[in-house]
Amino acid sequence: MEKSTNIQSKDKILLHICCGPCSIYPVQHLREAGFNVRGYFYNPNIHPYTEFQKRLETLQVYAEKIKLPMIYHDDYALEEFLRQVVHREGNRCQICYAMRLRAAAHIAKKGKFPYYTTTLLVSPYQQHELIAQMGEAIGKEYGVKFYYADFRQGYKEAAQISRDLGQYRQQYCGCIYSEKDRYVGKAKRSR
């Protein structure tokens, strides 16, 4: 993947955000690259509702602190995610990425953002290349450029900043399946 280089000063970019801690480095990077950043929270995969609320509230506090304008899709839409993943659990990450990237590309097109990207690119635990490929393909479909950057380089520093800020830091990616993998697997290992 090639990083976009023809950025005009203060071009608008829509940043899909999964949580507050994951937004730290991407927002910093994008602002330093000359973008006018607006965040977009859409995450129908997050389970349970209390986890969804913690992530949303943490992001709201942080966005206000750094003066990041936001668009919140704060309806708890777990059923949307489950309908698409049921009987396709082995492909759940790909389905989840596509759902969130499509929603972001749609909002970017509607809001006349020339670019969009995602904080999913910051996590060393996500399928980075797949996200980048899907982001580019979906961007072409919607007529919006996908801005690719390997945000993983800022992951450790941002994790420390989030700890220093006392932000809520989740223990799994968000979906019911990743929650099961994390906690059921841990319980089996401790027996």
Q: How would you describe the overall organization of this protein?
A:
The protein has about 190 residues and is an alpha/beta fold. It has one domain (about 10-190): 3-Layer(aba) Sandwich (Rossmann fold). The chain has seven helices and five strands, in the order βαβαβααβαβαα. The chain has helices at about 20-30, 50-65, 80-85, 90-110, 130-140, 155-165, 175-190, and strands spanning about 10-15, 35-40, 70, 115-120, 145. It has a five-stranded parallel beta sheet, with helices on both faces. Helix 1 (about 20-30) crosses helix 6 and helix 4 (about 90-110) runs parallel beside helix 5. The radius of gyration is 16 Å and the shape is globular. The N and C termini lie far apart (about 45 Å). The relative contact order is 0.20. The mean pLDDT is about 90.
Give a brief rundown of this model.
The protein has about 190 residues and is α/β, with parallel strands linked by helices. It has a single domain, classed as HUPs (Rossmann fold).
Provide the descriptors you would attach to this structure in a database record.
191 residues; alpha/beta; Rossmann fold; 7 helices; 11% strand
How much is the average pLDDT? Answer: 92
The succession of helices and strands, N to C, reads EHEHEHHEHEHH
* CATH architecture classification name: 3-Layer(aba) Sandwich
Stretches where pLDDT is under 50 for at least 5 consecutive residues are none
What's the helix and strand layout?
Elements lengths: L11 E6 L2 H13 L3 E6 L7 H17 L4 E3 L5 H8 L6 H19 L4 E4 L9 H15 L2 E2 L8 H10 L11 H14 L2
Parallel strand pairs: 1-2, 1-4, 2-3, 4-5
